[in-house]
Design goal:
This protein is an alpha+beta fold and 538 residues long. Helix content is 30%, strand content 22%. It folds into three domains: 2-189, SPOUT methyltransferase, trefoil knot domain (Alpha/beta knot, 3-Layer(aba) Sandwich); 273-377, no CATH class; 406-501, Aminopeptidase (3-Layer(aba) Sandwich), CATH 3.40.630.
Length: 538
């Protein structure tokens, strides 16, 4: 990930982020930091960037043009970087460093920035309050541009032209946007794979799942007459996990009643979903992993959204019709018997930006009539045991090669070129690349017998989708019938169990070979299928 900060005080940013975990990630080139001095784009004798405000009033205002030119310089860098990564290095496509990149196909710079999988964040008390969910969303971007204001702010016209997000870190006023930018960069960067030594810690800490983090202890056992709770030294992980959950709930209820209210809503939803665990495993795991938000609830009907992937999930009791239509204006709601004639309000469909999973077949017709396509019909395949699967004869958990040279490991950027063609994705050819970069894809490699422990051939892959299901399984034809698929699934399942997840996958109806594989591994199938749908022309 690349961070860009537009500021009047670049050294403040550079020095503030040069230490600790962020500083280490910068030195290891896991993330990068580009500070841009806005004064460099002020074309006057004293590099002045401020002026008096029209209409009068106290204080000075940062002018539009220097800010705009600073933004354009960063957009130019991003564009050139993307061209290089795409293999387009021709002279006609990569502009000279001093020439600003222009593309008349965009209405404004903000639109262009979004098209590059980037965001320009204006740090202002008037923005949405920054939180962990926002950090997770920003962490998926390739580039983040932070615009730091000073004085009375920045000319509104350049903000309208360039800003994609207005963000605040709290309801108070600081002298400038540098400190809030550093706060957000720290929070976002630690969610980038590789920044933390233990990537799991980013998923289990404060605010995960609408709960505050449980109390933690270290040596000595007794300090100032206060002892470490005995359960933490018992070695019984089940009891430890239960104690930690209890303490997280207690702490959240006491210190953050707002978060606790959200937790109780999701807990009520989870109770309903557990009545048919196999069918609703995707929604249950979404809640368990702290990634779910409730968009709609009524009489046991739920519309959830994954805060990471933005995929939505819908379910309700078998009896009765959908209450989603009750949100529509009365004159738009038609009292008819068929779902195909009913109306889902635009306020709902507009929030379904990345597809929806329906858990009852009878709603497929309703969503089809409201602008959605049925993409695929799947069965939920769930590993219900808590014990890890045996790896005997499949792979070595310590990462060392098997006698036949086989090693299974997490893929990294160096593997993208070889791995990407193995899984084109549904509609987006870049999907597998994004999952590899997120550290969510594993590969089976065979070693070269002529060299000691040299891994040189990728034979198959498996990965974890954004919403949490295990899939992307592919084994090259020449390596099939060697239990590689079983080895890869075993590896992925055991990694999921290590994270405290319930391993599950969604098997396309009609894929009999995959069905047989899941059955042989002890997975259980939902009796009813689920239906993936996307918006027409999406």
């Amino acid at each position: 990930m690349r961070f860009h900060v537009l500021t009047l005080f670049p050294q403040m940013i550079e020095q503030g982020l040069s230490e600790s975990i962020t500083g280490r990630a910068l030195k290891q080139n896991i993330i990068s930091l580009n500070t841009v001095n806005i004064r460099d784009f002020a074309h006057n004798k004293h590099n002045k960037v401020d002026d008096y405000t029209y209409g009068g009033g106290a204080g000075m205002l940062m002018q539009a043009e220097p800010v705009y030119q600073a933004v354009r310089s960063v957009v130019s860098q991003i564009n050139k970087c993307n061209q290089v990564h795409s293999g387009d290095n021709s002279e006609k496509n990569i502009a000279d460093e001093n020439i600003l990149y222009e593309n008349t196909s965009y209405k404004n710079t903000a639109e262009e920035i979004k098209n590059h999988n980037a965001r320009l964040i204006y740090v202002t008390p008037q923005g949405s309050v920054f939180n962990q969910q926002m950090a997770a969303e920003f962490a998926k971007c390739d580039d983040l541009i932070f615009l730091c204001g000073h004085y009375e702010g920045i000319d509104e016209r350049v903000l309208e032209e360039t800003v994609t997000d207005y963000v605040s870190i709290g309801d108070y006023v600081l002298t400038g946007g540098e400190l809030p930018s550093m706060v957000m960069i720290d929070a976002i960067s630690r969610l980038v794979p590789g920044v933390l030594h233990n990537d799991i810690s980013a998923e289990t800490e404060s605010f995960h799942g609408n709960l505050l983090e449980y109390p933690q202890y270290s040596r000595p056992v007794e300090w100032h007459d206060k002892k470490v709770p005995e359960v933490l030294m018992s070695g019984n992980q089940k009891k430890i996990d239960a104690w930690r959950l209890e303490k997280s709930i207690e702490r959240t209820k006491e210190r953050r009643p707002d978060l606790y209210a959200g937790f109780k809503r999701l807990d009520k939803c989870r109770e309903f979903l557990m009545k048919n665990k196999l069918l609703h495993i995707d929604m249950i795991e979404l809640i368990n992993r702290g990634c779910a938000e409730i968009l709609f609830e009524a009489d046991g009907e739920y519309l959830l959204r994954d805060m990471v992937s933005k995929v939505c999930f819908h379910t309700r009791p078998d009896e009765g019709g959908s209450k989603l239509i009750d949100l529509a204006p009365e004159d738009d709601t038609k009292p008819v018997d068929k779902y195909s004639s009913q109306h889902i309000p635009k306020t709902v469909t507009d929030q379904i930006t990345n597809g929806i999973v329906l858990h009852q077949q009878r709603y497929v017709e309703l969503f089809t009539a409201n602008g959605f396509n049925e993409t695929v019909e799947c069965r939920q395949a769930v590993y219900t045991n808590k014990e890890k699967l045996s790896v005997s004869g499949l792979y070595r958990p310590d990462g060392k090669p098997m006698p036949n040279g086989l090693v299974i490991r997490k893929l990294d950027a160096a593997d993208i070129q070889e791995a990407a063609p193995m899984y084109p994705g549904f509609d987006n050819p870049d999907y597998i690349i994004e999952r590899i970069e997120a550290g969510a894809v594993y590969g089976a490699f065979f070693g070269d017998n002529t060299a000691d422990d040299t891994i040189n051939t990728l034979a198959g892959i498996i990965g974890i989708h954004e919403e949490g299901s295990i899939g992307m399984l592919y084994v090259k034809p020449q390596y099939r019938h060697q239990k590689l698929a079983t080895a890869l699934e075993t590896y992925a399942f055991n990694r999921a169990l290590e994270n405290g997840w319930i391993p599950y996958g969604q098997i396309i109806v009609g894929n009999d070979a995959s069905m047989r594989l899941q059955e042989s591994m002890g997975l259980h199938f939902s009796k009813s299928p689920v239906y993936w749908m996307t918006k027409n022309n999406a």
